[in-house]
Specification:
The protein is built from 13 helices and 3 strands. By secondary structure, the protein is mainly α. A 3-stranded mixed β-sheet has the order 2-1-3. It is globular and about 65 Å long. The N terminus and C terminus are likely disordered.
Amino acid sequence: MDNFNYTFHPDVIILKAIPGLEKIQFWISIPFCTMYVVALGGNSLLIILIWMEHSLHEPMYFFLAMLAMTDFLLCNTIMPKMLALFWFQAESISFQACITQMFFVIFIFVMESTILLAMAFDRYVAICFPLRYTMILTPSVIKKIAGFSVARGLVLTSPFVFLVERLPFCGNNIITDTYCELTKISRLACADITANNIYTLVMSFLSTGLDVFLISISYMFILRAVFRLPSRNAQLKALGTCTSHVCVILMFYLPAYLTVLTSQLGCGILLANLHVVVPPALNPIIYGVKTKQIRDIVIIRLSRLGLWCGGEGVQEDQTN
């Protein structure tokens, strides 16, 4: 008798956004919409700038373009539906669209983690083996790293679709969130989800856990090499090339782990939503401000358009 109400999956999933704050959802959407626009504009500008400027055709900037592309994709995977939910109360999403969104969120997250690991390797080679930098990070190697990040994301993420699709559901189709999050979809099932939980732990270890460990190891070698430099100015200059990357790493991983820790609290939903829009919005700004070469190119181009009055001095520095 119990199996009579089971179905392989519901037709639609209902997203309930932020319970208890329905009346102010429109106002909550304003900062999210602002950050979404900044993320789209900033990452698009960064990709175009790196593509057009031959002086930026270096390994560090190619990795930065990959990071900007993943941020761009992550925002567009989640934010349109979130804003529709906030503005038009568009709570329903088909089950297959929900699974597709879940897949791309995890896939892009794994890709971005891989790219951050590649950027750490880039800084390690640049500081520890500066004379061999271009010999190690050749265009062929960079293409292989990009292909590996995509392949790794597909291999680690694809089993989630099978694990969720195999589950039977029996009526409950409401998720308290603004997007289709894996754990909350699995909890709707009327079956044991131990296999899903085990694979989630395994995947977390093989992706973000392993990446954080390897990034930490790379920075241990970087710090050891930096402190062996003869002058303090050289040490500060070497560390300065890593500050942007460190800031991006902290913004990417810390909110993710905090989201897991606060998932049982009311603030967990807001934190999870901030995690998918704040880093994509801030990453281009961080690299634009911290990276002199990008900053100077932007200033020069703005000055040519008459939008910046201090670009002539920068242009002279570039030509000298």
